[in-house]
Amino acid sequence: MGDLQLEEIYKDFPSHRVVDGISLSIPQGCFYSLLGPSGCGKTTTLRMIAGFDEPDRGLIKLGGRTLNGLRPYQRPVTTVFQSYALFPHLTAAENIAFGLKRKGDPDTARKVTEALDLVQLTTKADRLPAQMSGGERQRTALARALVLEPEVLLLDEPLSALDPKLRKQMRLELKELQSRVGITFLFITHDQEEALSLSDRIAVMHKGRLEQIGTPQEIYLSPATRFVAGFLGAVNWVGPVGVRPEMTRISREAPGNGARVVEATVNSAMFLGDCFQVETRTSAGDSIIAQIAHGLGEFQRGERVHVWWHPQDEIAIPQ
Amino acid sequence: MKGRLLPLYVVALYAFLHLPLLILCAFSFNSSRFTVWEGFSLVWYRMMWNDGALAEATWNSLLIAAVSTVLSTIVGTLCAYGLWKKNSKLLSGSLYLSLVTPEIITGIALLATFQWAFRYLQIQLGMHTVILAHVAFSIAYVVLVVMARLRTADPALEEAALDLGATEWQAFRLVTLPMLKPGIAAAALLAFTVSFDDYVITSLVAGVDSETLPMMLYAMARRGANPVVSAISTVIFVGLGMLIVASERLQKA
Ligand SMILES: Nc1ncnc2c1ncn2[C@@H]1O[C@H](COP(=O)(O)OP(=O)(O)OP(=O)(O)O)[C@@H](O)[C@H]1O
Ligand SMILES: [Mg+2]
Questions:
Q1: Residue identifier of the C-alpha nearest atom 22 of ligand 1
Q2: Are residues A82 and A161 in contact, defined by beta-carbon separation less than 8 angstroms?
Q3: Which of A118, A171, B99, B201 is most open to solvent, judged by the fewest CB atoms within 10 Å of its CB?
Q4: C-alpha–C-alpha distance, residues A253 and A230, integer Å
Q5: Could you tell me if residue B10 is inside a domain?
Q6: Which residues of B are less than 8 Å from A88 in CB distance?
Q7: In a domain, B15, yes or no
């Protein structure tokens, strides 16, 4: 047991460099997310940790022990695949028992029962994957990987195949599960909301490099680069300064007490259900979007307004 | 207009396809030796049943088909698996070349190869050469069918098995092979039919002890219309037809 460490990992595919010098350290028991856009090398990184691919350079260590060169079945990590990769000819219970049987675990039957119970699939134990719903398949895949009590569980966009409603529910279950079993989770996603809501720490990846590592608050509130700021949520850029739409206010009268103010014209106002989204344009031509609560007044197109925010809400990118 | 033409077209097409076989089948139950209907009879089936040479040829055909099916299914399945893993267009393409090579050319080439080899080995044409030839031309069919199944498989399945502690061999035996089972069974049935059917290649590489059913039928048919030939053909047609239907079912499973 111990921390998972990647030291200066590089991986080239014939066409280009996919992982470009990644170093990170994942504390034991942490819910750690690797967040980045499609094609940035997340899956490739995970495959090198699992042992399906070998890095061209760099070390992968778990609790001080080097994993490089070990076959997947020799590594104390298991994977929840994006496609789940459940064995189609085996039932839920048999899928979960697969790894225990390979180890010759004498406690297989009891552990399978417990794992089924953990993911609330006891009544579906004898179903084949084809007879299960998306959520049930997802839970089977989780149980199959967790039952081996790995030191690290790798999850490759495990929620992306689910419909939005189930996704939110599974997100809660996943978080709950992780705190219950206490195993290190390395969670891969391109969904910033998922990463923010689940993680203890997030590493933001872009074009094979890490842009920033930090807690969800740090990443969201003090992004280190423009890419991170933009990837985690919408940003209004006013010159070198950024501010999130939900921190942006609009009023007809000029605000006092040290607020940063820009004069602008309302371009459009949209009702989004939980708030109004007002798009304005400054005389310099910048577009500034504000999300304001109901009851803060309605604004008409063409109206002259003051757009403002508190200086502490500004995103300042270190140069 | 369209409503009436379409059924007519279908009937005509199926008649064109199957009428000759139906006629053949009908005359196998004719009591006359000639192509004039005289009455229902099983006399030709009785003659077929009592023909010793025919029984031997049938036995040869079944034995050859069975042995070559087992061998070509094993070799072909492993070959398909390897091609799928390596994902090489060149290798799979050159394999399918053997499907479009005219049978007569394949036969002549095999014969030449055997004769060349016999200069160094003290053996002759016979059952073993027929079986080898059948294995050679069945493999491509097996690969084709098994590959079709593999292409729909999730490549992550074997990785999942490795991830859960299986060795490469266990991953193949416990995950890939069971998943391929319907495809392998369908491939075996197809290999069996193409082996049982074959005349051209077989007649070229057969020895004195290895006359097969198609070879015997061909010889009998050349000697003129013979209702026993019709009876045998009917039995083969029905038997192989059932195998094909079974194979279709398996492929869909
Ligand atoms: N086996 C391979 N051979 C060649 N290129 C590959 C291979 N696997 C991945 N790539 C390329 O490497 C890059 C990163 O792929 P990777 O799967 O790691 O991305 P990802 O961040 O997981 O993206 P996504 O969110 O879409 O899953 C992509 O440009 C991809 O085309
Ligand atoms: Mg991916």
A1: A43
A2: yes
A3: B99
A4: 30
A5: no
A6: 157, 179
A7: no
What residues make up the domain containing B152?
56-252
CATH classification of the domain holding B98: 1.10.3720.10
Q: Is B203 among the domain residues? A: yes
pLDDT in tens, chain A (319 residues): 689 999 999 999 999 999 999 999 999 999 999 999 999 999 999 999 999 999 999 999 999 899 999 999 999 999 999 999 999 999 999 999 999 999 998 999 999 999 998 888 899 999 999 999 988 999 999 999 999 999 999 999 988 878 888 888 888 888 988 988 889 999 999 999 999 999 999 999 999 999 999 999 999 988 999 999 999 988 998 888 889 998 998 888 888 778 888 889 998 888 888 888 899 998 888 889 998 887 666 788 888 999 999 988 888 887 6
Nearest CA in chain B to A85: B157
B156 touches chain A (CB under 8 A): yes
Q: Considering the domain boundaries, does residue B47 fall inside one?
A: no
What residue ranges define each of the domains in chain A, with the CATH number in brackets?
4-223 (3.40.50.300), 234-316 (2.40.50.140)
Interface membership of B164 toward A (CB under 8 Å): yes
Query: Which of B28, B9, B58 is CA-nearest to residue B231?
Result: B28
State how far Cα A287 lies from the chain centre: 29
Residue B64 to residue A48: CA distance in whole angstroms: 49
Residues of B in contact with A51 (CB under 8 A): 162-163
